[in-house]
């Protein structure tokens, strides 16, 4: 299956993935495949209650069970009971509660960890949990955000005396803008809680290696590099003694962007017991213990003139933190903060976010992290404004969006969008969609009173990728930087090792990064090995999340490759006995300008650098180059998504009939991978609109605690998509790339919901809550009929 | 209990606890870690293998139930160099991203195409309903199955 690729054109081609051979033959190294001799398996006793005081905990019964070696509660664990870190204290006065790996005195959400058992096999470890004695004093569960911040609520963290985590304000001036407005539209949107539900459950193995003092941790994570730093800080184990490896990782979507308590526990126990410790979560554990995403109540207000010129936007959020703060829990709404104005020009923007503690699983990043929420709010409210003004929703957008000739454009939120062409992406999408034809059909169905109405949903979105220039992150009080690293080593045989700090879990970095390096070095794609996700082999990195891997990591690859060529050029010039200025590098070969016969392939230069027999004075043997790049700015992919929704007004049943999207993600390294990323994002965004939603009952019990209850879409629940792209290169990134990991998930949710509301608007419906299950839609119709819009 | 099962062409004799699931025996008992576990409610299909030629979720079968049978996993689908057409099609059509659902998707597809060599898109989607994928949105999986049908001599309608 080896393909021979013309290296000069490796960039931009839909090259089939290198990763696939092993994945398609079951030759994969999932963390759960690792079975070390003498391993102890950890099982976790989790709280069945949302909020309770632990009045008694006795783990001694478990020790008498077969195959059990040890058992720990917080008391037994003592000072090894590390605290789960949060690296984004968004305000100076943020309330940051302790988050011990094993709960001390109180449990604060269903699934909170109370005790662990270690046995020589996983089955007996799980069995022994039943022998642990716990007495609880139930406390009132704080479940809804609004009740959490109302007078008289119980506190999730008693010592803090409040359930408000922080209040963040940005902007100002909305009131003046609103005073000049002819029209003001207000809506409350509920951006419901979701579960990342990557298919590979989490798993951690930690083992003292007996080589110096090294402890190696294999874990199903998106962030081996960041995790190593955090585990060192949390456990006190010297960072140089920790090696973190993310083997093949089965999806993440932000859910594996975390320093989980289970990772801390496994590491600490391996260290304490001096033998390998392993924990693999069950899916039921995953549903309560892996962080959740979204969960905002959004009060949105937009002010405009009667001609449809937008004047200002006011955003007031309640953001659910859950019971504790995890790695970037408080920061997630702020990642959306800058994007509420979307692609539109306006004069004023007020933003206020209140972070709220509740007795629920902690929230954190889930595909898009903050930007799906902001995009949903702006794209929904623009449709509502259009309805209020009696304008065609696409016309209203066109009237207010930033025109392509106006870039770079500094938005009212203070970001400078470098490039974009909303006109081009929209024109292409309208054409693929047959917008006019579908509008005509809609008119017919309305006129004939067809019980199945047709709605057209629009989402013209932008987002920001490539978290981010380090100085920007610093200004936002984020504790880490946004750079990325790459080292490229040319081996004596002409093969290449490309060491990246990004950490893929399905994105195909091994293929795409090879394409970038191939196109610069002229080395065949198959001769480049991409080394990643192991702090022992790739020591520097900031990992993979926020669509940053290409946007930032790609720049580092280019810079390292360019540097390597310059180093090699000096050696080649010496070999060819001419000056460096007279050498050109074409298709992997150094040639004397004007005399292409005199050439030295890169591989020959590499061998020379290896033997060191004939190097120019001052040049050291071996040939490698590295680069660490801090991006100049974010990048701003955009696109136009259109959904044709059929809504049965009698049953509330909704059908997605056609979905078209045209995304502009800048220059594409591998369009096949780009398209795949878009598809996957669409599925998740559409699922938020139609299927998924976490439900807690009033006692804080998770009602959607398995894949039988939480509706991940199957192949039956989704259509094929019609996708295309326009290419407006980013000007802040040397490769012209932007990022694509989250675009589909960000853009699609409002497209679907706008379509449903559009279908029902003649009935008086002006909002439908997500997920738009038949009963929910049917109720919205009934409520509208009864006179009160939902 | 004693079982005797042929897995990917090799005969295994083993003693297992009656409650051991087939998937756990495959993974932990004989090291066939190509087959994976994605849930505990028989919803995801990641664990799908062929049992006497028909696809089953190996998390919902006891190891003892496989006694005397023949199991094919993703690791036994191709013989050495020759890829199975379903594997080829998934690579060609980018029908996988993280690859965690892939063993199950591929094995379900093999079964689906043996039942119906010329499936429509709707039939493909229905046939794979028991296999969840969180990465691909199914678009390219559906394309992969259709292309596999073509490679295997059928054609999709
Ligand atoms: S592991 Fe999910 S169906 Fe078998
Ligand atoms: S490819 Fe990741 S779950 Fe299907």
From TrEMBL, chain A:
Provide the protein name.
Unannotated protein
Keywords (alphabetical) are:
Molybdenum, Oxidoreductase
Question: Which Pfam family is one of those matched by this entry?
Answer: MoCoBD_2
Query: Which SUPFAM superfamilies did the record assign?
Result: CO dehydrogenase molybdoprotein N-domain-like (SSF54665), Molybdenum cofactor-binding domain (SSF56003)
**Biological source species:** freshwater metagenome
Q: Output the InterPro entries linked to this UniProt entry.
A: Ald_Oxase/Xan_DH_a/b, Ald_Oxase/Xan_DH_a/b_sf, Ald_Oxase/xanthine_DH-like, AldOxase/xan_DH_MoCoBD1, AldOxase/xan_DH_MoCoBD2, AldOxase/xan_DH_Mopterin-bd_sf
What taxonomic classification does the UniProt entry list for its organism? Answer: unclassified sequences, metagenomes, ecological metagenomes
* GO molecular function list: iron ion binding; oxidoreductase activity
Tell me which residues make up the Aldehyde oxidase/xanthine dehydrogenase a/b hammerhead domain: 25-140
The keyword Oxidoreductase belongs to this UniProt entry's keyword annotation: yes
TrEMBL record, chain B:
Write out the GO MF terms. Answer: 2 iron, 2 sulfur cluster binding; metal ion binding; oxidoreductase activity
Does the UniProt entry include the keyword Ribonucleoprotein? no
Looking up PANTHER family in the UniProt record yields: OXIDOREDUCTASE WITH IRON-SULFUR SUBUNIT (PTHR44379)
Instruction: Please give the name of this protein.
Output: Unannotated protein
User: What is the species of this protein?
Assistant: freshwater metagenome
In its keyword annotation, does this UniProt entry include Kinase? no
Q: What is the lineage of its organism?
A: unclassified sequences, metagenomes, ecological metagenomes
Where in the numbering of this chain does the 2Fe-2S ferredoxin-type domain appear?
1-77
Q: Which Pfam families match?
A: Fer2 (PF00111), Fer2_2 (PF01799)
Keywords for this protein = 2Fe-2S, Iron, Iron-sulfur, Metal-binding, Oxidoreductase
């Amino acid at each position: 299956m080896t393909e021979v690729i013309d290296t000069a054109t490796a960039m931009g081609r839909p090259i089939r993935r290198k990763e696939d051979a092993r994945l398609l033959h079951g030759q994969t190294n999932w963390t759960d495949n690792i079975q070390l001799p003498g391993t102890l398996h950890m099982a976790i006793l989790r709280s069945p209650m949302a909020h309770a005081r632990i009045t008694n905990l006795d783990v001694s019964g478990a020790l008498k069970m077969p195959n059990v070696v040890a058992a720990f509660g917080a008391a037994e664990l003592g000072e090894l009971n590390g605290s789960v870190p949060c690296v984004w204290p968004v305000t100076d006065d943020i309330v940051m509660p302790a988050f011990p790996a094993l709960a001390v005195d109180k449990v604060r959400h269903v699934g909170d960890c109370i005790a662990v058992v270690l046995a020589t096999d996983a089955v007996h470890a799980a069995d022994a949990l039943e022998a642990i004695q716990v007495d609880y004093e139930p406390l009132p569960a704080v479940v809804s955000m609004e009740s959490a911040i109302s007078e008289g609520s119980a506190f999730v963290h008693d010592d803090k005396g409040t359930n408000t985590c922080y209040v963040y304000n940005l902007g100002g001036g909305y009131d003046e803008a609103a005073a000049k407005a002819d029209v003001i539209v207000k809506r409350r949107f509920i951006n419901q809680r979701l579960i990342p539900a990557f298919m590979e459950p989490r798993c951690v193995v930690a083992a003292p290696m007996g080589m110096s003092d090294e402890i190696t941790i294999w874990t199903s994570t998106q962030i081996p590099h960041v995790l190593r730093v955090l585990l060192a800080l949390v456990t006190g184990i010297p960072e140089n003694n920790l090696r973190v490896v993310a083997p093949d990782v089965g999806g993440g979507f932000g859910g594996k962007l975390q320093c989980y308590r289970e990772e801390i526990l496994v590491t600490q126990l391996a260290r304490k017991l001096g033998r390998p410790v392993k924990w693999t979560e069950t899916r039921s554990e995953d549903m309560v213990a892996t962080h959740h995403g979204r969960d905002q109540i959004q009060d949105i207000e937009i002010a405009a003139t009667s001609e449809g010129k937008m004047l200002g936007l006011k955003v007031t959020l309640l953001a659910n933190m859950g019971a504790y703060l995890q790695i970037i829990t408080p920061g997630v709404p702020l990642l959306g903060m800058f994007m509420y104005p979307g692609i539109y020009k306006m004069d004023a923007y007020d933003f206020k976010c209140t972070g709220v503690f509740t007795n629920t699983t902690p929230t954190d990043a889930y595909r898009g992290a903050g930007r799906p929420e902001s995009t949903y709010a702006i794209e929904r409210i623009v449709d509502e404004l259009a309805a209020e003004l009696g304008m065609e929703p696409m016309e209203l957008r066109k009237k207010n969006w930033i025109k392509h000739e106006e870039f770079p454009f500094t938005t009212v939120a203070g970001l400078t969008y470098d490039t974009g062409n909303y006109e081009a992406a929209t024109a292409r999408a309208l054409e693929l969609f047959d917008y006019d034809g579908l509008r005509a059909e809609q008119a017919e169905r309305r006129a004939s009173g067809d019980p199945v109405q047709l709605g057209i949903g629009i989402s013209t979105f932008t987002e920001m990728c490539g978290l981010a220039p380090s100085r920007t992150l610093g200004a936002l009080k984020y504790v880490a930087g946004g750079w990325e690293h790459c080292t490229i080593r040319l081996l004596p045989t002409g093969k290449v090792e490309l060491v990246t700090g990004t950490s893929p879990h399905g994105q195909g970095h091994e293929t795409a990064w090879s394409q970038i390096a191939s196109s610069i070095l002229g080395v065949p794609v198959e001769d480049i090995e991409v080394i990643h996700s192991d702090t022992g082999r790739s020591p520097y990195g900031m990992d993979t999340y926020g669509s940053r891997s290409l946007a930032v990591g790609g720049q580092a690859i280019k810079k390292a490759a360019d540097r390597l060529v310059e180093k090699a050029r000096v050696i080649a010039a010496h070999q060819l006995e001419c000056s460096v200025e007279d050498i050109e590098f074409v298709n992997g070969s150094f040639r004397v300008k004007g005399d292409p016969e005199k050439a030295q392939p890169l591989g020959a230069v590499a061998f020379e650098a290896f033997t060191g027999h004939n190097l120019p004075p001052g040049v050291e043997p071996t040939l490698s180059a590295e680069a660490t790049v801090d991006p100049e700015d974010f990048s701003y992919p955009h696109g136009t998504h259109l959904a044709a929704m059929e809504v049965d007004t009698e049953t509330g049943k909704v059908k997605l009939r056609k979905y078209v999207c045209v995304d502009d993600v800048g220059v594409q390294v591998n369009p096949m991978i780009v398209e795949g990323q878009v598809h996957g994002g669409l599925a998740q965004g559409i699922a938020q609109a139609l299927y998924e939603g976490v439900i807690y009952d009033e006692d804080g019990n998770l009602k959607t605690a398995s894949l039988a209850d939480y509706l991940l879409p199957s192949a039956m629940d989704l259509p094929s998509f019609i996708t295309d792209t326009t290419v407006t290169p980013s000007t802040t990134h040397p490769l012209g790339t932007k990022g694509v990991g989250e675009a589909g998930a960000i853009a699609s949710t409002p497209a679907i919901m706008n379509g449903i509301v559009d279908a029902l608007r003649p009935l008086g419906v002006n909002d439908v809550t997500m997920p738009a299950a038949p009963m929910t839609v049917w109720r919205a119709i009934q409520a509208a009929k009864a006179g009160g819009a939902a | 209990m004693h079982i005797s099962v042929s897995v990917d062409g090799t005969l295994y004799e083993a003693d297992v606890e009656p409650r051991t699931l087939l998937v756990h025996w495959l993974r932990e008992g004989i090291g066939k870690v190509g087959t994976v576990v994605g849930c505990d409610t028989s919803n995801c299909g990641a664990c799908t293998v062929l049992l006497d030629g028909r696809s089953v979720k190996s998390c919902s079968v006891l190891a003892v139930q496989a006694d005397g049978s023949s199991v094919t996993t993703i690791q036994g689908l191709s013989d050495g160099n020759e890829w199975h057409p379903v594997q080829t099609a998934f690579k060609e059509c980018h029908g996988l991203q993280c690859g965690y659902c892939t063993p199950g998707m591929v094995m379900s597809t093999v079964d689906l195409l043996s039942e119906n060599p010329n499936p429509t898109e709707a039939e493909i989607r229905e046939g794979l309903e028991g296999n969840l994928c969180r990465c691909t949105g199914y678009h390219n999986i559906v394309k992969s199955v259709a292309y596999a049908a073509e490679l295997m001599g059928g054609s999709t309608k």
